[in-house]
Automatic annotation (TrEMBL):
Official protein name in the record: HTH cro/C1-type domain-containing protein
Record region (Disordered): 1-36
UniProt KW Cytoplasm keyword: no
Organism: Rhodopila globiformis
Pfam families recorded: HTH_3, Peptidase_S24
Entries under PROSITE patterns matching the protein: HTH_CROC1
GO MF, one example: DNA binding
Chain ranges passing through the membrane: none
Higher taxonomy: Bacteria, Pseudomonadati, Pseudomonadota, Alphaproteobacteria, Acetobacterales
Length: 266
């Protein structure tokens, strides 16, 4: 005996016409996540391009923050992403906030004007009388080198290409200018002295003075590398004892370059 077909409730389709629910497919979520990640990567590259527009070259910016130009170009192409330590170094050199650089949060930096200690003008036109084809124009770093905070400082130093090559055996585009803000290297380097750093010379040799990036601090020290991988940081000022960095921490120390010239008030 056939059972009578039940009548559907008012407003609902018959049971026989209802399509079975399909299981949730994760591919849609994966595609959405990949799309968001791609957009974030493009936005980060765009912020890098904004910073780079105020520097004479990508290589100069890369060396100023202590990374190889090839690694920096991978960031620009979206082929790789910087570590947090590299982000901190880039933000410091460029004078921008970590939040804006990493996530685009907060107001965009204004490079054309100087309105406070966190602003930086990485590069500017040398002006009349200075031929950019013969002179390299180096910006003074605000925050300085050392463990003590430095007062805001702005200025540029123009150096003739021939003098740089003759005096230091270095290429002008590889030079970086920094200001010392402690007396750990006194009498060789005094607080407030201007230092020229050859960012192409990062091979540690006994007796040389090197600019180092350790976490969020930059230090100018003599460096000895031990066989087991540890580093000994030596100050010329006898008041400071040598600092020993174990092999694990030494792997995260960035050698920005060798100090090739120091100048300051008499």
């Amino acid at each position: 005996m056939k059972r009578p077909r039940t009548q559907p409730e008012h407003g609902s389709p018959p049971e026989w016409s209802r399509k079975p629910s399909l299981p949730q497919d994760g591919s849609a979520r994966e595609a959405e996540s990949a799309s968001a990640a791609g957009a974030d990567k493009l936005a980060f590259v765009s912020r890098l391009q904004t910073i780079l527009a105020h520097w004479p070259s990508a290589d100069r910016l890369a060396r100023a923050m202590g990374v190889s130009p090839s690694a920096f170009r991978k960031w620009l192409k979206g082929e790789a992403e910087p570590s947090r330590e590299r982000l901190v170094a880039l933000a410091r050199v460029a004078g921008v906030s970590i939040a804006w650089l990493a996530q685009g949060e907060g107001p965009a930096p204004v490079f054309e004007t100087v309105s406070g200690p966190r602003r930086r003008l990485p590069y500017q036109d040398p002006g009349p009388g200075v031929d950019p084809g013969q002179f390299v124009l180096l910006p003074k770093q605000h925050d300085g080198v050392g463990t003590h905070p430095a007062a805001p400082m702005f200025g540029f130093l123009a150096l003739h290409h021939d003098w740089v090559r003759t005096a230091f055996g270095a290429e002008p585009d590889n030079l970086l200018l920094e200001i010392a803000t402690d007396d750990a290297m006194r009498p060789t380097i005094r607080n407030g002295d201007t230092m020229l750093v050859d960012t192409a010379d990062r091979t540690l040799r006994n007796g040389g003075v090197y600019l180092l990036q350790i976490n969020d601090h930059r230090l100018a020290r003599r460096v000895q590398r031990k066989h087991e991988g540890s580093l000994v940081l030596i100050s010329d000022n006898s008041v400071y004892h040598p600092d020993v960095i174990d092999p694990g921490a030494a792997a995260h120390v960035v050698v920005i370059g060798r100090v090739v010239w120091v100048g300051g008030a008499v």
